[in-house]
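Posting for a labmate who doesn't have an account.
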Amino acid sequence: MEANLSRIDAALGLGLPPYSGITTFMRARPTRELAGVDVAILGIPYDASVTNRTGTRFGPRKIREVSTMIWGYHTRFDVTPMQDMVVVDYGDSAVVPTDALANLEAIQMTIRPIVQAGVVPLTLGGDHSITFPILRELSARYGKISVLHFDSHMDTWDGENGQRYTHATPFRRAIEEGLINTAEYIQLGIRGPEESPADVQDALDLGAHIIPIEQVMEGGIKAALAEITARLKGPVYISLDIDVADPAYAPGTGTPEVGGLTSYQLLQLMRGLRDLDLIGFDLVEVNPQYDHADITSLLAANLAFEFLSLLAARRA
């Protein structure tokens, strides 16, 4: 195996414009060989658990497509993550749209070799239900995990329409199974109407520390980052629902909520996480069918690039 699996080769579009070549994430080499690999990009094209607008199953493919427009050098951190690390595109997980429990198992079976090899998973969804099986596998390796959860919704419901495994329940299920260190579990960006006051209280009772959008906007990004870094001692998993962004910046999502973060605020928040012990990242709920000019997918691809740059900066 070559020393740098993440290099661009001619078949993937070496020297070609963004609209040419095979669209792996940022031209990463597609492989399931994990020896010597630092980061594996995994797509999970599953959206059978959503309750509003389906279509996030097309998210991984579209994010990969627009990622070819990202130049590789990160000016703030002075790193080129696709060269400074070995990053591969692991392809997509098998999914079982008709059986939630079988789907959980299929995702776990796909991501297990990545986690067991000590490779950092960067996962592209798909709806937010995919986070639960990822946390199962990471917890099996690291024990209880610190979690930074970007979202407009708390996703700690007990169920929807009688179903326990949906995009609104992953963090309740994870807490019930002891996967999350609730002393180090932060939800950031929460906003919008709820069905009842019990929705917020349930999240608090489960141990979530909520930084609502009002606190972020009124207190500022620096204050929010200070609170995050003071509380999360790691190992830290980041789960980012693209609807944490305002629909003006991310219209392509299933359950948009007005009054969210700007694209630049999200970049600021991601860049402020450099000192955390990061063990994985997922980016979910990108729905290309409701996007305009690919701006949601482009934001998602850039946030994934920011995560890669955080890892590269820590290694540097």
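Reply:
Got it, the structure tokens are right above this. Strands lie at 29-30, 39-44, 87-92, 120-125, 145-150, 180-190, 209-212, 236-241, 278-284.
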